[in-house]
User: Fold these one by one.
Assistant:
Number 1:
Amino acid sequence: MKQIDPSLAGHIAGRATTLASCWIVRRLDGTALGFTDHDRPLAVSGTLCQPQNALSATAAKDGPGLAVGGSEIGGAISSPDLTDSDLERGLWDNARVDVYLVNWENPDQTLLLRRAIIGEVNRSGSAFTAELRGLSHLLESRQGRVFSRRCDADLGDHRCKINLSNPAYQTEALVTASAPGWVQTGPLSGYQDGWFTGGRLTVLDGAISGFASEIALEQAGTAGPVFSLFEATPAALDAGTRIRVRAGCDKMLATCRSKFANHLNFQGFPHMPGADFVLSYPNSNTGRNDGSPLVD
């Protein structure tokens, strides 16, 4: 149960109140930003919450036990701290939000109502709505390892151990042409066709610097490779924009051995029996009930 400041409790119990809502958002890049539905800036928990036109929130919904609760916050993209470009680049994805009730006449009187994580963000013109997911939704995420023929490590992480700074696995290039769903660069010598399929493309400069997307497919173009992206860029990239492309991995043992020479660190279980073996059973008509393997 939340502990309320006695002075704030007394204010709420009064006949007239001066209450406002404040949201402090902490993005994964370390940026902390504050917003309020009041018409003046309010300093809450060491963060200055700026007025945001038409910012409003729906009622919070909670379920029994550890059921995931949630709500939404919506408004207009009119604050200098809340830009269309940042939303497009995913800088607000999975950001943590603290929701406060504040006495705007005395901002030291606050009550932390809930903590949440930003989920899906929807936009329509200059308006947006963001889903606020209760922290209990983290309990629904996968924990531990999954046994699979494929590797469950991420390329370059502490289990994979591949050094992605090696020029064999990533390189920088200049954009020659692009559209929201694809990017073309000049020739990339020293790399096999399809080397970057399943990899990652990151924009290094320009208006959407920091945007990244997985590469769905690398195809050979007349003037250089063409990278089809799973997530379209917010806008076409200007010619000359620097990008970084990283090699792809299909997480199979053969690829780990031939492409990365890293099969000793392979984090999958390639010799697991398949469905045919699991579903097999002794059959008197086979004439092979002699203790030999059921599946060759």
Number 2:
Amino acid sequence: MGTTTSGRAAPLAPEDRREALTRVFIALAREHGRVPTTSEIARAAGVAEGTIFRVFPSKDALQSAAVESAFCPAPARRDFLAIDRSQPMRERLVDFATTLQQRVRDVLDLMRALGLSQPPPLERHSACLGAGKHLRSEPAESCEPLHHDHFEDVLDLVDPDDVTVTPHQLLHRIRLLSFSGSHPGISHGELLTPEEVVDTVLYGVASGRARKANDPHHA
């Protein structure tokens, strides 16, 4: 954010200041693994501590806004749509898995920092502050949690003639493996790379010889 010659942040509209402070809160929480103090937030944002309470009634209100912003999936959806469709299918899907895994890691890091046992419920009317100004005019459902019913806009990542399941089913399997392969507790520390996730779903792990030996239709 811009600063004045005094080192303080340049004046912002209240809505923009709220967004800037939520971003600082999230960054500090992830960096330090705990809830930041208001003095830490103010120092990192380049504002006086009292500025926080001119746009938020309390620190709890700032934390609630930051959590709502951090867990909003709209930025991930934007990244899905930005994937280069001219790439081969495997590379498109690796980009898809990379975005999914980054979101899982970001969410888990913030949950640990804030002491949350599960993601908070997102309201359909969420403002999605962390998604950027250009998303404020999007439909309210853009802030609903990611699940396989929300992949209609990215089904073109899959070449349907090259797989034996529907594009919907393929993306759903990549989503499931991306989550479990990115969660330290589920994976017992043996995390999967996006390439491993995609190759496991697309090609499996059996060798060509094993596939032939176990294929009852192989002549």
Number 3:
Amino acid sequence: MRTYNWAILGLGNIARKFAQDLALVPQARLHAVASRSLAKAQDFAAEFAVPHAVGSYADLLAVPDIDAVYIATPHSEHYAHALLCLRAGLPVLCEKAFAQNATQAEEMIRVAQEGRVFLMEAFWTRFFPAIAQALRLVQAGHIGEVKHLVADFGFATPYQPEGRLFNPALAGGSLLDIGVYPLFISQLFLGMPSAVGAVSTPAPTGVDLNCALALAYPGGATASLFSTIAAQTDNRCVLYGTKGQLQLLGRFHAPTGVQVQLAGEESPQVFPSPTQGHGYHYEAAHVQECLAQGLTESPLLPLAFSLQLMQQLDAVRQQIGLRYPGE
């Protein structure tokens, strides 16, 4: 079996977690890292024993034998950095939110498909074993017909106008950073909504501090979703069905199991699913499986799904009046 040489473009906190988890992936090796600062790239490379470190993103294209690039820059930069790699023929795993808006996502997908280069959104939640378990239970009708889904994701962070989370130029706000998770999980279980309602509370910089969504689906289900960067929430997801309810255990975006409470039964059924590391290794292993099969997109997280998610994010931003510079 061949070894896959990974590169990381953008060396923030999430890149460090991904690098740590890559050690858990069979036949994976961190081969190159790229930062706007050569010193930062060299320090990162020294920490993880990486043979190649470059001080610009363009210089990454000159590194030989790269099999896949993980893009971990801010949301506002995903479009440019994905295109940089895709046009060079390098397979891309791009952090969520996939792009700043659906127009950018469409162009990323077009370039990938025309060049027959692999592209996938790095929505790590999709690849946790507990998610697969929950989908099996719901699709088998274990809790009956799903009527409502609730999901929230929130944490409290100090207000820093120039920081990534509050800066409009970096596509800041709760929605694209963490609100995308409740929206993702609702799309995964319920599909595309027929109606979306959204309200938000703006931060002084204009990005959303809180964002609350109410959605309706063609099949008759509804969803209540919430994100905030002003308060710690439970980070829960519960699906309510005609026969009972299903909850993703732990933080729903990185679940450690599934719990099912059927109507009329005293005790819930628990399906534990312990994880290793941070959980990023699941998506990396999946990318390698796709590349080994010669695929240009994932069957579990197809590009059409990511585009639909971006279209929903655009619709929400239109309702709450959130525009980013240049839009």
Number 4:
Amino acid sequence: MEFRFKSSTCIGEELVKSFNKDFKISFLSEGEHSEFTGGVTGTVKEIHVDKTFVLFQDYTSTDIESHTVQVVQNQPVFLLQYVLEGELHVALHEDASTALTLGKNLYTLFYIPKSTYVYKYSSDKSQVLNVYFTKSFLESKMGTGILKSSKKYQKALKKDQPCSFFDDGLMINNQLRNIIKDLLTCSFESIIRQSYIESKLAELLLVSLTSNRSLGSRKKIRDEDKERVSSIEDYIRTNLKEDLTIEKLSQLAGFNTSKFKTVFKQIYGIPVFKYITSLRIEKATELILNHGYTIAQASYEVGYKNPQHFTVAFKRQLGYLPSKLLN
């Protein structure tokens, strides 16, 4: 199996990656690329463990019109793609009629046959996680049902065409963000690092695709409503210190409180208050561990006026007291 990556902004020749069948490998292989032209800065990290190949693209561009990546692959693959920042357009053979778009905070599962396709980045900041694997890996984790029951996949297979299992994309909820963060910031070494990364990739696949089963039975959410709630999720992340009431967030979204709570839970899988609490605990933990904040200081920075209330919420969610972080 071979991939050829040709970036419009990369220095030197195209990146060629060759793999054994089904991405099989007995060790952990990692690499990083950071030489770009055309006003692009950033990194591309690659991780190859048994049966999966991962690319994490983190770009900043001053000329988004010229930033494209062409990919040529000589075997069919599946791709779980997560857009953490920016917006990404994928077109087969540079044919605009085949273009699929994935916006910020969205992910999807692609089937891609042997083909040439082009990624076009349309934002000045892009963070995209790509997880490649084959049919055998998917079926070893999920069984054969997910492919047999997908009419899109069966049609694409017959016509030898790519397809997206979730056209509009699914929202990247807090659980998925945490898994991705754990995957990309793993601090273990040697065999433990390999085992940890493999377990996180399996967890990412299972959570991403089983979440869709519950979403599939829900009422379809309008694109406009998704965008509104996504903007509120951004607002929450950057304003954890504020008093984030349902009434205030609903007003910012342009919904009544009932609709806001319903749509938010449909998209992110948990009630808005649980989501806010989870973000606050995550941020406070980071402040304590990485920036030397006391528990009282950290709790104040994430919106708790009383440190005891933070301690109760922390213990309820994680099962131990925040004082354990200090040890």
